[in-house]
Structures are given as structure tokens and as C-alpha cells.
Amino acid sequence: xxxxxxxxxxxxxxxxxxxxxxxxxxxxxxxxxxxxxxxxxxxxxxxxxxxxxxxxxxxxxxxxxxxxxxxxxxxxxxxxxxxxxxxxxxxxxxxxxxxxxxxxxxxxxxxxxxxxxxxxxxxxxxxxxxxxxxxxxxxxxxxxxxxxxxxxxxxxxxxxxxxxxxxxxxxxxxxxxxxxxxxxxxxxxxxxxxxxxxxxxxxxxxxxxxxxxxxxxxxxxxxxxxxxxxxxxxxxx
Length: 237
Hints:
Layout (H helix, E strand, L loop, with lengths): L3 E5 L4 E6 L5 H17 L4 E6 L3 E6 L6 H7 L15 E8 L10 H8 L3 H10 L2 E6 L6 E4 L14 E4 L3 E5 L2 E4 L4 E3 L2 E5 L23 E6 L2 H6 L10
Parallel strand pairs: 5-13
Antiparallel strand pairs: 1-2, 2-4, 3-4, 5-12, 6-7, 6-13, 8-11, 9-10, 9-12
């Protein structure tokens, strides 16, 4: 039996926590929960926001009282795990050593991990990552799990400005910054594709991925990066 904990998250929302370690199995359980909740309370649920091992359930309180939902949640525990394998999204990345003017943090990552720059790039490309959560900024997807030899902490001093499209790693995760922003992750390269289109906010097309999707990176040259619309704003770092 899967254990869970639920608590109120405002006047019209419930936060559900699975007592299960974050990972592919937990992600599958969250998908199963989401499916059953949608089927049982379709007319009362406004939105479901899953993360690593939690699910925020936003309700229409005129149709379902949050306290009633909390009392009924144990009955909704799925006896199966849904197939959490989402779509495969492939993202191009121009790694730092391909960009004129500097390697971003590739050298630092190489020194910390003891890997060569070529090995850092190869390992980063070798993994198929799961979208565990989307947050921090619109279109910012937390992807895991990073191969163990590549794992390293965030930078001691965050940058005031990380460029749009920066492909980065920190701890067990990798991600792409969808817009220029502050950030403390270690930068490996740049992705030229838009990861959030504000003019489509509220629509599925606003972002290329959703919770549970798979992501793979593949290398491109600087020429291809520019052809795909990439901006060389990395030089401002």
C-alpha cells in the first residue's frame, strides 16, 4: 500500500505528498493518481500540478470541499502504476567548446569531475532524462537523473545573468534556462530552441514538454546553432 500525506494548500487546494522516494516509480504513481482523480472528480478539479513526489490539486470549492477530498483521498490510492513514459523531446545543444570565445563552465566541470571535456559532453548526451517538475520560471524543466560521474554542486557564487537557452547541471539534475535570469547552475552550452512562448501562455504549445516526458540532448555546431535561431549572448558572461 502506498502511503500518502495530504494537507490544505489554501482555501481551495490540497497538497498531496507520496511517502515514496522521488524517481521513475514515484513519477508513475503520480500519473496514476492524476488519472484516477481526474476520472473521479472531473467536474471539481481545476488543475493538477505534479512535482517530484507531490501533487497540488486545485479545486472548485463550490463543487468539492477540500476537507472532503482529503477524507476521500485514501480511497483513490491506485493499485497500479500508470505508464509514465511521455513523449521523447530531443533538444540540440551547442557545447561551450564549440562556441567562439569561451567554454562557459566546461573546464570547471571537467576539473571537478576528473573527466575530460569530451567525456563531460558524451555523458551529458548519453542519458534520457525525465521531466520531474516544471517551475522556477515558465518553461524551466527539472530533468533527472544526471549520470553519477557528472554530478557536482551549484556554483558558490550564482551569476546575476544566465543567458537564454543555457544548458546547465547541478547536483542530480540538468535543465535549460528558457529566458535570461539569475542562476547558479554550471553551464555546459546553449540550446537555440524556444522553451517558453509567452504569447501562447495557458496553452499546451507554450512549452515543448510536460511532466513525465523524456528529454535527450544532441550536439550541434555553432553554425547550426545560429541557423536554428541561437543568440550568441553567452559572450556577455
